[in-house]
Amino acid sequence: METRVAVIGIIVEKPENVEKLNAILHEYGRYILGRMGIPYHQKNISVISLAVDAPQDVISALSGKIGRLDGVSTKTAYSNY
What are the b/e assignments for 31-46, b being 16+ CB within 10 Å? Predict the structure, then answer.
């Protein structure tokens, strides 16, 4: 199956949902190339960047599951490959 490289940007505004987020990321771990998380203490949020290589439907499913978490926002940027 053809895969694409994408970056998923995540902002967590409700820290109580980090455990649910981590469970989702663990479920899709085989597709994650790298992860960078930055706590922004002044605003009490976390900013997370995921680099993934997966079929487009898998990337969409991952982003959708993350975006359905309360207090969690996500946007995805796809490569042309």
Answer: bbeeeeeeeeeeeebb
Architecture of the domain whose range is 4-68:
2-Layer Sandwich (3.30)
pTM value surpassing 0.85: yes
Condensed to tens digits (0 to 9), the pLDDT of residues 10-40 reads 999 999 999 999 999 999 999 999 999 999 9
CA dihedral 63→67→72→75, nearest 10 degrees, is 50
- Domain residue spans in the chain? 4-68
C-alpha span between 61 and 56 (Å, rounded) = 9
Are 31 and 52 within 8 A, CB to CB?
yes
